[in-house]
């Protein structure tokens, strides 16, 4: 049976993509986030708006394009998420 991802897992996937694929320091485009996040464009735009609003992502706007970088707050969120995920798995739970 297929296991569905929770909203928090999707957020962690998007944040880790923004962190890992930002090799040049110029941010990550929506296309890369869509591919790695594996959700629809409509859902991704809503999620990006929420993440920017909460301070987990930084939006870099340029000529007709927006790119995204993970913020320090987003890095702290990922660290806490992975720590809790390890803790839950030690009890045999899946997030």
Give a verbal description of the structure.
The protein is α+β, with helices and mostly antiparallel strands and 95 residues long. The protein has one domain (7-90): Arc Repressor Mutant, subunit A. Helices cover 57% and strands 13% of the residues. The chain has helices at residues 7-20, 30-37, 41-53, 72-90, and strands at residues 28-29, 57-61, 66-70. Strands 1-3-2 form a three-stranded antiparallel β-sheet. Strand 2 (57-61) and strand 3 form a beta hairpin. The protein is globular and about 50 Å long.
Overall residue-averaged pLDDT value: 91
Shape: globular
Number of domains: 1
* Measured distance between first and last alpha carbons: 16 Å
**Major sheet size, sense and barrel closure:** 3 strands, antiparallel
- Count of DSSP H/I helices: 4
Q: Over the alpha carbons, how many angstroms does the gyration radius reach?
A: 14 Å
- Report the strand count: 3
Order of helices and strands: HEHHEEH
CATH class: Mainly Alpha
Level-2 CATH architecture: Orthogonal Bundle
What would you call the structural class? alpha+beta
Query: What would you give as the CATH superfamily?
Result: Winged helix-like DNA-binding domain superfamily/Winged helix DNA-binding domain
Biggest sheet: strand arrangement? 1-3-2
- Give the proportion of residues in helices: 55-70%
CATH level-3 fold name? Arc Repressor Mutant, subunit A
Q: Proportion of β residues?
A: 5-15%
């Amino acid at each position: 049976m297929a296991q569905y991802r929770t909203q928090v897992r999707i957020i962690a996937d998007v944040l880790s993509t923004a962190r890992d694929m930002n090799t040049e320091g110029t941010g990550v485009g929506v296309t890369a986030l869509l591919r790695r996040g594996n959700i629809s464009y409509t859902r991704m735009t809503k999620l990006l708006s929420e993440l920017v609003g909460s301070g987990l992502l930084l939006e870099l706007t340029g000529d007709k394009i927006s790119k995204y970088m993970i913020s320090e707050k987003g890095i702290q969120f990922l660290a806490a998420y992975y720590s809790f995920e390890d803790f839950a798995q030690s009890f045999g739970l899946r997030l």
